[in-house]
Design a protein that fits this description.
Blueprint (H helix, E strand, L loop, with lengths): L33 H15 L15 H5 L4 E9 L5 E2 L2 E2 H14 L3 E13 L4 H18 L2 E10 L7 E11 L15 E4 L5 H9 L17 H10 L5 E4 L4 H13 L2 E5 L7 H10 L12 E5 L4 H9 L8 E7 L6 E4 L5 E3 L13
Helix pairs in contact: 1-4, 3-4, 6-9
Length: about 350
């Protein structure tokens, strides 16, 4: 286990929790010695405890025969999380790191199983902050049905990072009958989303206290693997799935259209966007279609399966507000349009620049 790869202690002994008395992260916590061991055991080993983690090796090991019972292909992904602020309504950097990686696996049709957790800590970070993040990660992992099985810890000098960065990698197994790809869309296919758009991006803007606004918006940070399993149970022939994170719905649809060389038209009247999110966007001159989400799924299915998939999505807690929002068209290839309430077509292009930095 890389979390403790440089620590000089006997790994043959069962781990025991050594209460950490430090209140702030120091450079010693990344030195490989006693301070590092105490930090890792007290915050990570005791929190993430599971059979794959407990040997405390430099890697987690799995039985291939067990994995093959779940499918015939592996899915591997990784992502890094640098959000500011660390805690926000509806989540924090810990739950975001777990759910984001789980969702990246799930949209491939994989059953997420195992995650890594690597942290970069700034000297001076409050130990209690790190403890809260670790506990949040474990709670999110339990909710998603995955295990955090290995990782790494680094400490950098004060000012060399902003409090806490997290990298997670994930591995899952893809069901044999499932094969999704952004290159599989066909004219006539239907586009669905599982709920309101832009909640996460709007929440982060407000959480930074740069605006004197108070609204009930909170991040949609949640795992999507349960919802996706419900979809695949009724429609294994899903064309494509993607979680609409950075760049929002608009970016996902453009990626789909470009990969499949088709057009996509969505209906403005069908888009689920909260009044509060629309209000924030109007105030700041932003477009909610480009705002980040952390629990929103964009799925494209054959028209013949659309109503069946919609019913399955709406029956799951993560998809209760699911809607059909548009369709795949033949031409122009690679273009995305919004049919406005005035009956005109508005081009939805790729975002130039960044509406809001460090939202995940």
């Amino acid at each position: 286990m890389n979390l403790i790869a440089n620590a000089n202690f006997d790994r043959s002994r069962p781990p025991r929790r050594i209460p950490l008395r430090d209140t702030e992260i120091t450079l010693a916590h990344g030195s490989g010695g006693k301070a590092m061991r105490d930090l890792i055991h007290d915050l990570f080993v005791s929190t993430f405890d599971n059979p794959a983690l407990s040997p405390l090796e430099d890697q987690a090991r799995f039985n291939l025969a067990d994995l093959m019972q779940l499918g015939d292909r592996l899915a591997l992904t990784t992502d890094s999380y640098v959000i500011d602020p660390l805690f926000f309504p509806g989540g924090d950097i810990g739950s975001l790191a777990v759910n984001g990686t789980v969702n990246d696996l799930a949209v491939s049709g994989a059953t997420p199983l195992y995650l890594t957790c690597s942290v970069i800590l700034e000297e001076g970070l409050a130990v209690e902050t790190l403890r809260q993040v670790a506990q949040s990660m474990q709670q999110a992992a339990i909710a998603a049905g995955v295990q955090i099985v290995t990782g790494d810890t680094k400490v950098v000098q004060r000012g060399a990072a902003d409090k806490l960065f997290i990298n997670t990698a994930g591995i899952g197994v893809i069901r044999r009958e499932v094969s999704t790809s952004a290159a599989q869309l066909q004219p006539g296919d239907v586009v669905l989303v599982n709920g309101t758009l832009g909640d996460h991006g709007a929440t982060i803007m407000l959480a930074r206290d740069e605006l004197a606004l108070s609204t009930p918006i909170q991040s949609d940070c949640q795992p999507l693997n349960g919802l996706i399993a419900a979809i695949l149970n009724v429609c294994p022939a899903v064309r494509a799935m993607r979680d609409a994170t950075r760049g929002g719905l608009a970016t996902v649809l453009n990626e789909f259209a470009t990969s499949s060389q088709v057009g996509i038209r969505i209906q403005e009247v069908a888009l689920p966007i909260r009044d509060e999110v629309n209000g924030v966007c109007e105030l700041l001159g932003l477009d909610p279609l480009y705002l980040a989400n952390e629990g929103k799924l964009v799925v494209v299915v054959p028209r013949s399966q659309a109503e069946t998939v919609l019913a399955a999505m709406q029956s799951h807690p993560a998809g209760a507000q699911s809607r059909i929002i548009g369709e795949v068209i033949t031409a122009p290839a690679g273009a995305v349009f919004l049919k406005t309430t005035f009956g005109t077509d508005r081009v939805i292009d790729l975002l130039v620049g960044d509406q809001l930095p460090r939202i995940c």
